[in-house]
Amino acid sequence: MRMVRFACAALIVVSSVFDIRAACAQAYPAKPIRIYATEIGSASDLSARLIAKELQASFGQSVIVENRVLIGVELAAQAAPDGYTLLHYPNPMWILPLFRSNVAWDVNRDFTPIGMTVVSPNVLVVHPALPVKSVKDLIALAKARPGELNYGSSSTGAGNHVAGELFKSMAGVKIVRIAYKGGSSSLNALMAGEMQLSFPAAATAAGHIRAGKLRALAVTSAEPSALAPTLPTMAASGLPGYESISYTGLFAPARTPGTIITRLNQEMIQALRLPVVKERLFNAGSEVVGSSPSEAAETIRIETERTRKLINDAGLHEN
Description:
By secondary structure, this protein is an alpha/beta fold. It is built from twelve helices and eleven strands.
């Protein structure tokens, strides 16, 4: 009889805990929400701010975007799983750990995806003085001058870095990476003649291409992109199967209640479907995705496996 009473009491306690969690989820949000994002002015920062604006209007609570770059990923991973600390971040969040073994977070262990928000292709650009007009020309030149050509990128695991290494691997060429603090500084160095080629985001390079300061050869998406409608794909330019694009997603700390994840996903998709939001993102070089949590998890799995193979085949692991 005592065991039965104890079991019943335990069930009451457990039930109460779940009732409290359910009540908290139903009341969500009851206070301001913080979203950690990448550097100010980046495409992912813009999309974070557009989403935050719509969430704030819908929730009636302040939604603050804080630019903390990589430290923001660590802070979000350590935050309470209550829906009040979120992370809006692109590929390096799940790609960087493939290059380095000392990364403080694990995307599958520490985060729950809310959904992919936007996707952006990169473009292959060269300095106008380089005597190439196509990807095939560039490959031929690189093979004729092994180790003499340089490409610029930003941080390890960034879209322009992965795109450059994939090009080297698939084309079988030896070109040297020069790392810069950011995409803008990399492009400035390219235009100054410090290196010969790069793989910037389509929007970042568009103005320089129009001004004749850079020559665009191809887009890195598998299919032609509306963001760079005049450019052929890398795959159609001599590298069949080439694809390198940058996804950005919205995440919550692991163990965040499913009701909160569902609510955030619904609000995120509603915000991304607004014509004014889609137009601003498109003009900034990003196309809206608005996926489900499970679709986001599958995207991460596919992109992780694709990049892991590249890193292993090319021996790119840094430590």
